[in-house]
Design goal:
CATH architecture of chain B: 2-Layer Sandwich
Strand order of the largest sheet of chain B: 8-1-10-9
Number of domains of chain A: 1
CATH architecture of chain A: Up-down Bundle
Helix content of chain A: over 70%
Radius of gyration of chain A: 21 Å
CATH class of chain A: Mainly Alpha
Distance between the termini of chain A: 23 Å
Largest sheet of chain A: 2 strands, antiparallel
Shape of chain B: elongated
CATH topology of chain A: Formate dehydrogenase/DMSO reductase fold
Radius of gyration of chain B: 22 Å
CATH topology of chain B: Alpha-Beta Plaits
Strand content of chain B: 5-15%
Number of strands of chain A: 2
CATH class of chain B: Alpha Beta
Structural class of chain B: alpha+beta
Strand order of the largest sheet of chain A: 1-2
Helix content of chain B: 25-40%
Number of domains of chain B: 1
Number of helices of chain B: 10
Order of helices and strands of chain B: HEHHEHHEHEEHEEHHEHEE
Structural class of chain A: mainly alpha
Distance between the termini of chain B: 87 Å
Number of helices of chain A: 14
Largest interface: A-B, 49 and 55 residues
Strand content of chain A: under 5%
Oligomer: heterodimer
Chain lengths: 396, 264
């Protein structure tokens, strides 16, 4: 089946070459970090996690979000998702891979990464996160690949796979709950110490993941004559809309608790992020950009006409994806570390090499995703006759 | 019967996963593996159940113009603390700050703040009774000893910095660079560290083993830092704490710090 990825159009190879060049730039930046140390990043004694962990946290959500397609398809036998289920599983594979790489590039002693397995520590949430992430990666590779391979052979997937598929569905929320527990169980980090952290993580995951699938599926429709099915996209866009609204609501609950209680330490991080604190307002434009994107996304996704129109739907989904990326990525991390335990402010800004490494990881994820999606589409297309005529898809 | 390539790969994969899993389970079952077998401490070593420090901040204020904060200097020299000019990337085990920063939750009580203005507060790892850093460390590179010291294993630390996120006291530092480049003189009695690991005050465990009190305690000319065993009712720290008024940082978090500040 892998041979499907080795034959492609010029556009396909150009796209892969483009991604490879970004991976290379990221790799060069990483070599510098390897030599000098994490000092080349903008992180500091007070803000000791940054852009890497922010992207990691967001991508765990993208990986878990794919379950919003897999679950209706396998559990409720919702046949419309038949075309995009494998897309969901392979998105999870690429996203978890990026998560692991982001953790790896964030380690001060990467050569000792396996110490986590050598000295398993049940009281550390990190240990559990390593377990659930690698488990989820293996499950999705197994399920996605086996299902697609059966399709390639023209048969139904084998019955032994069924328990693994159900396990993968149950496993998906666990990766994000455990990731939320990394943050929400720490004393003294007021912004993170909240019981709605895990529900918020799940809500943002269940909108950001499907939003990405919608963007990818509609893009593949354009560039690769792949038809995801109108009904599938319509159903999935409703999932994105509901999940995103719940996500925004949970954020407002946080605001209520912090500001109605009036506890200064709970208000301080939110103030720093949205209006600035003690003369520091480094992340205010980003947080307001996220707020505006969220408003745009809700308008576009709630009105049925704009949700059903492919162009506005894609815009809405991009807005959801970016809003979640800012809010659950950098906003979450910077807000947790600001103010410091001394109620002072230490400014964090990612440096150029740091951004280069992050871009390299993203490009690697997209490279893997592109190859997996290429195989998927070729297999699906080989089973049906599709003709594009005057920009309209006709299929047998 | 010849083995097929596919079966061979399957078998190989299974063996690999099995080996890794059994090794992990074995590690999980062997508890307290950090302890060496048959270990006995030297007769001259100081033994305690829960080491603690009591810092008399009034004495610090009275003597700050003449003492030159020898406690900090002694620690820096003894433990090969690198002198990194960028405050964002610096390493510090023991340092001074003001009352509002050390006790931010009291910072809105302006009468208290006024009373304690100008008093230097010596800050360091609190060697908590219930340390969040130990709870979160995924490799047990940071752990609590039987005498209450929260220790660091620089060789096991993977540099994930989860402990820094967990510490509510900002007591931990990370080696963003190779620290050896920022050392003008090396004390051979204490190891230098490598880049990419976390470090912090270890209450001079190596000096206690030799029967000496921590370097900061010894260096203070005003004897403002008192060291002793909190579990020993006759220890000096217990006597002082019974007589005078002492506070601990972020009491409400339930970490149980072992560093007390005398404020009366």
């Amino acid at each position: 089946m892998i041979e499907k990825a080795l034959r492609g159009s010029k556009k396909y190879w150009l796209w892969l070459a483009f991604l490879a060049s970004i991976i290379f730039i990221g790799f060069l930046c990483y070599l510098k970090q390897w030599k000098v140390g994490l000092g080349i990043t903008g992180m500091s004694r007070d803000v000791s996690w940054g852009f890497y962990i922010a992207n990691f946290t967001f991508l765990v959500g993208v990986a878990a979000g794919a379950v919003m397609i897999v679950l209706p398809y396998y559990w409720h036998n919702y046949k419309e998702y038949g075309k995009i289920t494998v897309l969901g599983e392979f998105l999870a594979v690429a996203a978890v891979l990026m998560c692991m790489l982001f953790i790896f590039v964030d380690l001060g002693q990467p050569m000792r990464a396996l110490n986590v397995l050598r000295y398993p520590t049940p009281h550390s949430v990190f240990f559990f996160d390593a377990c659930v992430l690698s488990g989820y990666l293996l499950l999705n590779i197994l399920c996605g690949w086996t299902v697609l391979h059966s399709e390639y052979k023209g048969t139904k997937y084998p019955s032994w796979l069924k328990p693994f598929i159900y396990l993968a569905i149950l496993w998906a929320p666990s990766i994000h709950i455990v990731t939320a527990f990394i943050y929400q169980g720490l004393p003294g980090r007021h912004f993170w110490l909240t019981a709605v952290m895990a529900p918020r993580f799940l809500a943002s995951a269940f909108c950001a993941g499907p939003a990405f699938i919608i963007i990818a599926a509609l893009l593949l429709k354009r560039v690769a004559n792949f038809d995801p099915g109108k009904k599938a996209i319509e159903a999935l866009s409703k999932t994105v809309a509901y999940a995103f609204i719940i996500n925004v609501l949970l954020f407002f609950f946080e605001l209520f608790t912090s500001f109605y209680s009036g506890i200064p330490s709970h208000k301080a991080p939110i103030k720093y992020l949205f209006v600035g604190l003690h003369g520091h307002a480094e992340w205010v434009p980003f947080m307001w950009a996220a707020a505006i994107l969220a408003a745009v996304a809700i308008i576009l996704l709630v009105i049925p006409a704009t949700r059903k129109n492919e162009a506005t739907l894609v815009l809405g989904c991009i807005a959801v994806f970016l809003a979640c990326w800012i809010d659950k990525g950098i906003g979450l991390i910077v807000g947790g570390y600001t103010p410091t335990p001394f109620e002072t402010i230490t400014v964090y800004r990612p440096t150029l090499p740091e951004i280069g490494i992050a871009l390299g990881v993203w490009a690697l994820g997209f490279f893997v995703l592109s190859v997996l999606y290429k195989i998927t589409i070729e297999v699906k297309k080989s089973k049906e006759l599709v003709v594009k005529y005057n920009g309209i898809l006709f299929k047998k | 019967m010849a083995i097929k390539r596919r079966d061979f790969l399957k078998l190989g994969g299974l063996t690999l996963v099995g080996t890794a899993a059994s090794a992990a389970v074995e590690n999980l079952l062997i508890k307290g593996e950090a302890k060496a077998e048959g270990y006995t401490s030297a007769p001259e070593s100081l033994k305690g159940k829960r080491w603690a420090l009591v810092i008399d901040v009034k004495k610090c204020k009275e003597n700050q113009s003449t003492c030159g904060f020898k406690c900090i200097e002694a620690c820096n020299v003894y433990h090969n603390i690198p002198n990194i000019p960028d405050p964002k990337k610096e390493i510090k085990w023991i340092w001074k700050d003001n009352f509002e920063h050390a006790f931010p939750e009291e910072g809105t009580n302006k009468y208290l703040v006024e009373k304690l203005e100008g008093i230097p507060f010596i800050l360091l790892c609190n060697h908590c009774e219930n340390p969040p850093c130990v709870r979160v460390c995924p490799t047990r590179a940071t752990f609590k000893r039987e005498d209450g010291i929260v220790m660091m294993d620089y060789h096991r630390c993977i540099g994930c910095r989860f402990c820094m996120a967990a510490c509510p006291y900002g007591a931990r530092s990370f080696n963003w660079y190779d620290p050896r480049k920022y050392l003008s003189k090396v004390n051979p009695l204490y190891p230098t560290r490598t880049k990419g690991v976390v470090e912090k005050c270890t209450l001079c465990y190596e000096r206690l083993a030799d029967g000496k009190v921590p370097a900061c305690v010894e260096a203070c000319p005003a004897k403002a830092i008192i060291f002793g065993d909190l579990n020993d009712p006759n220890s000096e720290v217990n006597k002082v704490l019974e007589e005078r008024m002492a506070i601990r940082r972020k009491e409400e978090l339930g970490t149980g710090p072992s560093v007390f500040y005398l404020i009366d």
